[in-house]
Amino acid sequence: MRKIWFDGVNGLKYIVEIIIPKGRDQKLVFYSFLAFYILLSLLMYLKHGLMAWQTNVLNYDVYMWIDRLSSIEYLAPYRAGLRHPLFTSLIMPVTVIAIFLKAVSGKLAIHVLYFFLLYNFIAAFSNTIVYKYCSAVLNIGKRSALLICLLFSFFAHNLVLSFLPETFPLVMLGLLVMIYLTSDSILNKKEIPLATNIIMFCLISGVTITNSAKCAIAQLFQTGKSLRQKIGVILKSGLICLGLCILSISIAYVIQIFLYGKWMMGDNTGEFISSIKGVDIFQIFFSEPLLFHHNYDFFTMEFVKPLLYHGFIAKITVIAFYSFVLFSLLSNIKDKIILFLLSVFSIDVLIHFVFGFGIEDSYIYCQHWFFICPLAIAVAYRKIQNTKIKAGMDLLLIFFIITFVWNNLPLLVHFLI
Fold first, then answer.
1. CB 314 within 8 A of CB 283
2. Is 363:157 a contact under the CB 8 Å cutoff?
3. CB 87, CB 167: distance < 8 Å
4. The predicted structure's pLDDT at residue 301
5. Which of 83, 89, 95, 195: disulfide with 7, CB 3.0–4.6 Å?
């Protein structure tokens, strides 16, 4: 028992060391983003934060999560949702603090600001991991790493989810750590501890169960074990995660029967299954996560179709950006990290394009996959030795960053003020 506890602590420490920024440059990146996101949160709180709004923001369940995670009566019924089986259990300490703040602050709704600030930290950590991945794992240089980090940070839905409570930012943080671990293992022949793999599997799958497949893929790509050993790690991780899910459901069942006399757990997954016919896939799946469309109302439950951009710069930017990403992928298709990233992305393709899950509003799932784009570009940097070509790539990234800022920030600020 003592050994299991010791291994678990060390496994968790391995993960925390990746998340926490180290060194002057990483800390500067982290605190700069944190300050920026706190400003966005304060604006959001001053205009919308008193819970007078009870609708979604860009189809994200913002109000629902805040209300659910700050109310005692909602803990048991939603403890074991099928798509997010361990989510409310994992953030139970956060919920306890939120309930206390809600009780003592009254109409000021300080618990709302508390959730905003919590997600500021999550977003800042995610951006810092991207920077750390590019500079420390891929060793592409601090300037190029910073440009890729800035590019990533000004994606439209990275901006909006930097202060809005949802499951997606948590999943993205977990997936970025997983990619960091696996890529470091591939490049430096490091063997990832079993406890670390199990913890990552449970955390990522517990928040969104479909991402368990991505965790399994990551474990297959890691170095230091035979295929048989890797399959054993996957089975152990999956069984432990399944056991925790069953335990969570069982606790929820007992509490609900005791409090309400009936079992109330439901699942609306079927509502999100739809045909891809007639849906503008490129606009909804690829464009919207990068650049806010100009005819989209932040506060609406209806998705505006067709999505429109004013002018041609935004359209050209989206096409050029994905052309750059596609070039980075195809030119390094034999690279093991690229194969790993594409394997991870294939799970989202399977879920949305093959099964048709949530395809009509698939942009809200972008934080499950769009970090693949800047990371693929970073791999291309690593392969190129010519300084002039790298300088040209830097200029292209600067163009993308300027366009993202020019398009996304004014729309976001208009929403906040």
1. no
2. yes
3. yes
4. 46
5. 195
Contact between 367 and 373 (Cβ < 8 Å): no
The angle at the Cα of 298, spanning 110 to 397, to the nearest 5 degrees, equals 100
Of 333, 314, 315, which is closest to residue 403 (Cα–Cα)? 314
Q: Which two tokens stand for residue 314?
A: 């935004």
DSSP secondary structure, 178-195, as one string: HHHHHHHHHHH-PPPPHH
In terms of DSSP H, where are the helices of 142-260?
A: 142-153, 156-160, 168-188, 194-207, 212-221, 227-260
pLDDT computed for residue 119 by the predictor: 95
* pLDDT tens profile 221-236: 999 889 999 999 999 9
Strand partners of residue 57 = 60
Rounded to an integer, what distance in angstroms lies between the CA atom of residue 201 and that of residue 208?
11
Q: 206, 207, 415, 405: which is closest to 314 by C-alpha?
A: 405
Both tokens of residue 281? 């896939």
What are 383's two structure tokens?
């392969």
Task: Give dist(CA 245, CA 82) in Å, integer.
Answer: 9
Both tokens assigned to 26: 């990483």
Element (H, E) at 322: helix 313-330
Token pair recorded at residue 293: 């469309």
Q: How far apart are CA 149 and CA 152, in angstroms?
A: 5
Reference 149, options 407, 383, 401; nearest CA is 401
CB 194 within 8 A of CB 351: no
> Cβ distance 258 to 284 under 8 Å?
no
> What is the model's pLDDT at position 124?
98
Give 51's Cβ-side CA count (13 Å radius). Answer: 18
**Both tokens of residue 319?**
């096409």
| pTM for this entry | 0.93
Token couple for 106: 């009254």
What's the pLDDT at 4?
A: 61
What pLDDT score does 241 carry?
92
- Counting residues of the chain whose pLDDT is more than 90, the rounded percentage is 53
> Is the predicted pLDDT of residue 379 greater than 50, yes or no?
yes
Calpha distance 156→293 (Å, rounded): 10
DSSP state of 368: G
Residue 145 tokens, joined = 């790493």
pLDDT of 320 higher than 90:
yes
